[in-house]
């Protein structure tokens, strides 16, 4: 059995990993898919001061209280900031880190600096409370119909402070033995979010990284949970080395 910690992206929650978690649990693995402060069912917690470090600290507490070790860490989208900072703080707790169409932050980066049209993302979508950004219609939507139905009845928000904080890294996350990047591509083989293409390209050229592509939208855990699960199992105790880089 292997323990997986799944970190969701912006405007999402742990619910986004339900299908993926089911597939991993079905073959005997333990899965944690927490919702980060200020998002999804925890949106009511939105307050001044929620930032990347808030999310890192609460995950560190989860790991400590649950006494988790030798984990596979998966990060989606914004979750890449949180995962990298978490892994940098406690690299000894992880056997692998996998980025799923995600940011791979470097020391000093902020989400605001790396996303396309950052002023539009933050200023144009700021909630009435000044603490959150509302999901713009059509953004971050999977092709998965259930996902669209799920979010349609809610005001989907994300804490503004997470976009502004500079991530501080020592580089210790590089000590994690296995590292991988999964890029979402369309039918033409091109990335659905071109700003993630460079991370995948860097992974293909680095001897310590594995690189994969999966067909689907940005929310691959919803579009292709079977494909994502198959890749994750390569880093588990029941790894299947027959999985190709283009799943």
TrEMBL record:
<dbReference type="InterPro" id="IPR000073">
    <property type="entry name" value="AB_hydrolase_1"/>
</dbReference>
<dbReference type="InterPro" id="IPR029058">
    <property type="entry name" value="AB_hydrolase_fold"/>
</dbReference>
<keyword id="KW-0378">Hydrolase</keyword>
<dbReference type="Pfam" id="PF12697">
    <property type="entry name" value="Abhydrolase_6"/>
</dbReference>
<protein>
    <submittedName>
        <fullName>Alpha/beta hydrolase</fullName>
    </submittedName>
</protein>
<dbReference type="InterPro" id="IPR052897">
    <property type="entry name" value="Sec-Metab_Biosynth_Hydrolase"/>
</dbReference>
<dbReference type="GO" id="GO:0016787">
    <property type="term" value="F:hydrolase activity"/>
</dbReference>
<feature type="domain" description="AB hydrolase-1">
    <location>
        <begin position="4"/>
        <end position="230"/>
    </location>
</feature>
């Amino acid at each position: 059995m292997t323990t997986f910690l799944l970190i969701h992206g912006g405007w999402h929650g742990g619910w986004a990993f339900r299908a993926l978690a089911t597939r991993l649990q079905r073959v005997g693995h333990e899965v944690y898919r927490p919702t980060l402060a200020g998002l999804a069912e925890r949106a009511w917690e939105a307050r001044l001061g929620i930032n990347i470090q808030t999310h890192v600290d609460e995950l560190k507490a989860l790991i400590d209280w649950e006494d988790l070790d030798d984990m596979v860490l998966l990060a989606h989208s914004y979750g890449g900031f949180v995962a990298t900072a978490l892994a940098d703080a406690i690299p000894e707790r992880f056997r692998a880190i996998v980025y799923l169409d995600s940011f791979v932050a470097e020391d000093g980066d902020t989400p605001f600096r790396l996303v396309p049209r950052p002023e539009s993302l933050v200023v144009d979508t700021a909630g009435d409370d000044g603490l959150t950004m509302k999901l713009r219609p059509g953004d971050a939507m999977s092709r998965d119909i259930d996902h669209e139905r799920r979010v349609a009845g809610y005001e989907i928000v994300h804490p503004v402070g997470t976009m502004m904080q500079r991530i501080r890294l020592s580089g210790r996350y590089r000590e994690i033995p296995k590292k991988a990047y999964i890029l979402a591509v369309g039918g033409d083989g091109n990335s659905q979010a071109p700003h993630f293409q460079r991370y995948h390209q860097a992974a293909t050229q680095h001897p310590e990284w594995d690189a994969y592509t999966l067909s689907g939208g940005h929310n691959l855990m919803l579009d292709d949970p079977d494909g994502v699960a198959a890749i994750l199992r390569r880093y588990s105790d029941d790894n299947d080395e027959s999985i190709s880089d283009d799943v």
